[in-house]
Design brief:
This protein is an alpha/beta fold. It has 12 helices and 9 strands.
Protein backbone atom coordinates (compact mmCIF):
# COMPACT_ATOMS: atom_id res chain seq x y z
CA UNK A 1 0.00 0.00 0.00
CA UNK A 2 1.36 3.44 -0.91
CA UNK A 3 1.73 6.02 1.85
CA UNK A 4 -0.98 8.25 0.37
CA UNK A 5 -3.47 5.39 0.89
CA UNK A 6 -2.77 5.06 4.61
CA UNK A 7 -5.50 7.59 5.38
CA UNK A 8 -8.59 7.80 3.19
CA UNK A 9 -10.44 11.12 2.88
CA UNK A 10 -14.10 11.11 1.85
CA UNK A 11 -16.17 14.26 1.43
CA UNK A 12 -19.94 14.69 1.24
CA UNK A 13 -21.81 17.49 -0.48
CA UNK A 14 -23.20 18.52 2.92
CA UNK A 15 -19.70 19.39 4.18
CA UNK A 16 -18.86 16.31 6.25
CA UNK A 17 -15.35 14.95 5.73
CA UNK A 18 -14.31 11.49 6.92
CA UNK A 19 -10.68 10.61 7.58
CA UNK A 20 -10.28 6.83 7.85
CA UNK A 21 -7.09 5.20 9.09
CA UNK A 22 -6.36 2.51 6.51
CA UNK A 23 -4.20 -0.32 7.78
CA UNK A 24 -7.01 -2.77 8.55
CA UNK A 25 -4.68 -5.77 8.46
CA UNK A 26 -2.77 -4.15 11.36
CA UNK A 27 -5.94 -2.96 13.14
CA UNK A 28 -4.92 0.53 11.96
CA UNK A 29 -1.89 0.61 14.24
CA UNK A 30 -0.11 3.93 13.87
CA UNK A 31 3.30 4.17 12.22
CA UNK A 32 5.23 7.29 11.15
CA UNK A 33 4.05 7.11 7.53
CA UNK A 34 0.43 7.11 8.69
CA UNK A 35 1.07 10.21 10.78
CA UNK A 36 2.59 11.97 7.78
CA UNK A 37 -0.46 11.11 5.68
CA UNK A 38 -2.87 12.18 8.42
CA UNK A 39 -1.06 15.48 9.01
CA UNK A 40 -1.24 16.29 5.31
CA UNK A 41 -5.02 15.89 5.43
CA UNK A 42 -5.28 18.00 8.59
CA UNK A 43 -3.22 20.78 7.06
CA UNK A 44 -5.46 20.78 3.98
CA UNK A 45 -8.69 20.73 5.99
CA UNK A 46 -7.59 23.55 8.32
CA UNK A 47 -7.93 26.04 5.45
CA UNK A 48 -10.74 24.32 3.53
CA UNK A 49 -13.96 26.30 3.84
CA UNK A 50 -15.97 23.48 2.23
CA UNK A 51 -15.57 21.35 5.36
CA UNK A 52 -18.01 21.82 8.25
CA UNK A 53 -17.34 18.68 10.29
CA UNK A 54 -14.70 15.94 10.36
CA UNK A 55 -15.28 12.31 11.34
CA UNK A 56 -12.20 10.28 12.28
CA UNK A 57 -12.52 6.50 12.09
CA UNK A 58 -10.75 3.34 11.01
CA UNK A 59 -11.18 0.97 8.09
CA UNK A 60 -12.00 -2.64 8.86
CA UNK A 61 -13.03 -3.89 12.27
CA UNK A 62 -11.12 -1.48 14.52
CA UNK A 63 -10.63 2.21 15.13
CA UNK A 64 -6.95 1.94 16.05
CA UNK A 65 -5.03 -0.63 18.10
CA UNK A 66 -2.42 1.95 19.09
CA UNK A 67 1.18 2.65 18.16
CA UNK A 68 2.61 0.00 15.85
CA UNK A 69 5.03 -1.86 18.16
CA UNK A 70 6.81 -3.22 15.11
CA UNK A 71 7.59 0.31 13.98
CA UNK A 72 8.99 1.07 17.43
CA UNK A 73 11.12 -2.09 17.39
CA UNK A 74 12.61 -1.34 13.97
CA UNK A 75 13.26 2.28 14.85
CA UNK A 76 10.99 3.88 12.25
CA UNK A 77 11.16 7.64 12.70
CA UNK A 78 8.71 10.46 12.05
CA UNK A 79 9.96 13.61 10.27
CA UNK A 80 10.68 15.34 13.59
CA UNK A 81 10.99 14.43 17.26
CA UNK A 82 7.49 15.47 18.30
CA UNK A 83 5.72 15.00 14.97
CA UNK A 84 3.21 12.45 16.31
CA UNK A 85 2.19 14.44 19.37
CA UNK A 86 2.01 17.62 17.31
CA UNK A 87 -0.29 15.81 14.88
CA UNK A 88 -2.70 15.00 17.72
CA UNK A 89 -2.45 18.65 18.73
CA UNK A 90 -3.28 19.65 15.14
CA UNK A 91 -6.33 17.38 15.19
CA UNK A 92 -7.50 19.00 18.43
CA UNK A 93 -6.88 22.46 16.96
CA UNK A 94 -8.87 21.96 13.75
CA UNK A 95 -11.26 24.91 13.50
CA UNK A 96 -14.27 22.69 12.71
CA UNK A 97 -16.07 20.19 14.98
CA UNK A 98 -14.59 16.69 14.98
CA UNK A 99 -16.10 13.31 15.87
CA UNK A 100 -14.21 10.11 16.67
CA UNK A 101 -16.23 7.10 15.47
CA UNK A 102 -14.88 4.19 17.51
CA UNK A 103 -15.37 0.50 16.84
CA UNK A 104 -13.34 -2.55 17.77
CA UNK A 105 -10.00 -1.70 19.34
CA UNK A 106 -9.10 1.78 20.62
CA UNK A 107 -5.96 1.38 22.68
CA UNK A 108 -3.16 3.66 23.89
CA UNK A 109 -2.02 5.72 20.87
CA UNK A 110 -5.40 5.08 19.27
CA UNK A 111 -7.13 6.39 22.38
CA UNK A 112 -4.83 9.42 22.38
CA UNK A 113 -5.85 10.01 18.77
CA UNK A 114 -9.55 9.78 19.65
CA UNK A 115 -9.10 12.18 22.58
CA UNK A 116 -7.94 14.80 20.10
CA UNK A 117 -11.51 14.92 18.76
CA UNK A 118 -14.32 17.08 20.15
CA UNK A 119 -16.93 14.32 20.41
CA UNK A 120 -16.37 10.59 20.87
CA UNK A 121 -18.98 8.03 19.81
CA UNK A 122 -18.28 4.33 20.34
CA UNK A 123 -19.91 1.03 19.61
CA UNK A 124 -21.11 -0.55 22.84
CA UNK A 125 -18.83 -3.54 22.23
CA UNK A 126 -15.75 -1.47 21.38
CA UNK A 127 -12.72 -1.92 23.63
CA UNK A 128 -10.87 1.15 24.92
CA UNK A 129 -7.84 1.42 27.16
CA UNK A 130 -4.45 2.91 27.91
CA UNK A 131 -1.89 0.10 27.77
CA UNK A 132 1.35 2.06 28.06
CA UNK A 133 2.05 0.26 31.34
CA UNK A 134 1.59 -3.19 29.81
CA UNK A 135 4.39 -2.53 27.32
CA UNK A 136 6.68 -0.47 29.53
CA UNK A 137 6.11 2.68 27.51
CA UNK A 138 5.69 6.31 28.63
CA UNK A 139 2.95 8.51 27.16
CA UNK A 140 4.12 11.45 25.04
CA UNK A 141 1.10 12.16 22.80
CA UNK A 142 -1.02 13.89 25.45
CA UNK A 143 -2.98 11.20 27.25
CA UNK A 144 -1.85 12.34 30.72
CA UNK A 145 -3.58 15.67 29.97
CA UNK A 146 -6.56 14.75 27.80
CA UNK A 147 -7.68 11.58 29.61
CA UNK A 148 -8.17 13.24 33.05
CA UNK A 149 -9.89 16.14 31.30
CA UNK A 150 -12.42 13.58 30.08
CA UNK A 151 -12.86 11.23 33.02
CA UNK A 152 -11.33 12.99 36.03
CA UNK A 153 -7.93 12.53 37.62
CA UNK A 154 -8.70 9.49 39.79
CA UNK A 155 -10.40 7.49 37.03
CA UNK A 156 -7.59 8.37 34.64
CA UNK A 157 -5.06 7.09 37.16
CA UNK A 158 -6.91 3.79 37.48
CA UNK A 159 -7.07 3.33 33.72
CA UNK A 160 -3.40 4.21 33.28
CA UNK A 161 -2.10 2.21 36.25
CA UNK A 162 -4.03 -0.98 35.39
CA UNK A 163 -3.94 -0.95 31.55
CA UNK A 164 -7.53 -2.17 31.87
CA UNK A 165 -9.68 -2.45 28.75
CA UNK A 166 -13.25 -1.23 29.06
CA UNK A 167 -16.23 -1.56 26.77
CA UNK A 168 -17.83 1.27 24.87
CA UNK A 169 -20.77 1.05 27.26
CA UNK A 170 -18.53 1.42 30.30
CA UNK A 171 -16.63 4.22 28.57
CA UNK A 172 -19.91 6.10 28.22
CA UNK A 173 -20.72 5.60 31.90
CA UNK A 174 -17.46 7.27 33.00
CA UNK A 175 -17.61 10.05 30.40
CA UNK A 176 -14.73 8.78 28.29
CA UNK A 177 -17.03 8.75 25.27
CA UNK A 178 -20.09 10.91 24.78
CA UNK A 179 -22.33 8.21 23.33
CA UNK A 180 -22.24 4.42 23.02
CA UNK A 181 -24.56 2.73 20.55
CA UNK A 182 -24.91 -0.83 19.19
CA UNK A 183 -22.32 -1.58 16.54
CA UNK A 184 -24.89 -1.94 13.77
CA UNK A 185 -26.19 1.57 14.57
CA UNK A 186 -22.83 3.32 14.86
CA UNK A 187 -22.53 4.55 11.28
CA UNK A 188 -26.08 5.90 11.18
CA UNK A 189 -25.74 7.57 14.59
CA UNK A 190 -22.53 9.39 13.68
CA UNK A 191 -23.93 10.34 10.27
CA UNK A 192 -26.98 11.91 11.93
CA UNK A 193 -24.83 13.72 14.49
CA UNK A 194 -22.53 15.11 11.78
CA UNK A 195 -25.51 16.25 9.71
CA UNK A 196 -26.97 18.02 12.73
CA UNK A 197 -23.69 19.86 13.18
CA UNK A 198 -23.33 20.99 9.55
CA UNK A 199 -27.01 22.05 9.44
CA UNK A 200 -26.12 24.91 11.78
CA UNK A 201 -23.93 27.93 11.09
CA UNK A 202 -20.42 26.77 10.34
CA UNK A 203 -19.23 30.19 11.41
CA UNK A 204 -20.90 29.83 14.81
CA UNK A 205 -19.39 26.36 15.24
CA UNK A 206 -15.92 27.68 14.46
CA UNK A 207 -16.36 30.59 16.88
CA UNK A 208 -17.71 28.30 19.61
CA UNK A 209 -14.74 25.95 19.22
CA UNK A 210 -12.26 28.83 19.29
CA UNK A 211 -13.83 30.31 22.43
CA UNK A 212 -13.76 26.96 24.21
CA UNK A 213 -10.08 26.61 23.34
CA UNK A 214 -9.37 30.16 24.50
CA UNK A 215 -10.95 29.36 27.87
CA UNK A 216 -8.16 26.91 28.73
CA UNK A 217 -5.69 29.78 29.08
CA UNK A 218 -7.91 32.29 30.88
CA UNK A 219 -9.40 32.70 34.32
CA UNK A 220 -13.18 32.50 34.50
CA UNK A 221 -13.62 36.25 34.83
CA UNK A 222 -11.18 36.89 32.00
CA UNK A 223 -12.96 34.34 29.82
CA UNK A 224 -16.30 36.08 30.36
CA UNK A 225 -14.80 39.42 29.34
CA UNK A 226 -13.05 37.76 26.41
CA UNK A 227 -16.29 36.26 25.08
CA UNK A 228 -18.24 39.52 25.20
CA UNK A 229 -15.50 41.30 23.24
CA UNK A 230 -16.36 39.09 20.22
CA UNK A 231 -12.69 38.17 19.67
CA UNK A 232 -13.52 35.98 16.69
CA UNK A 233 -16.12 38.26 15.16
CA UNK A 234 -19.59 37.22 14.04
CA UNK A 235 -20.56 34.45 11.62
CA UNK A 236 -20.71 35.47 7.96
CA UNK A 237 -24.15 33.89 7.60
CA UNK A 238 -25.75 35.63 10.59
CA UNK A 239 -27.92 38.04 8.61
CA UNK A 240 -28.99 35.36 6.16
CA UNK A 241 -29.98 32.96 8.92
CA UNK A 242 -31.79 35.60 10.95
CA UNK A 243 -33.84 36.55 7.88
CA UNK A 244 -34.68 32.98 6.88
CA UNK A 245 -38.47 32.35 7.22
CA UNK A 246 -37.87 28.73 8.24
CA UNK A 247 -35.69 29.57 11.26
CA UNK A 248 -36.68 27.90 14.50
CA UNK A 249 -37.98 29.98 17.38
Amino acid sequence: MSDDQLVIRTDTTEGVTTLALNRPDKLNALNPAMFVAFRAHLDAISTDNTVGCVVVTGEGRSFCAGHDLGAIATGEKAPSKHFESETVDALEALPVPTIAKIKGHCFTGGLEFALGCDLLVAATDAQLGDTHGQWGLAPVWGISVRLPERVGRSTAKEMMFTSRRISGSDAESIGLVDHAVPRDQLDAYVDTLAREIVANSWGTNRIDKALLADRDNLTRSAALLHERSLPHGLPDDMAQRMAAPSRKR
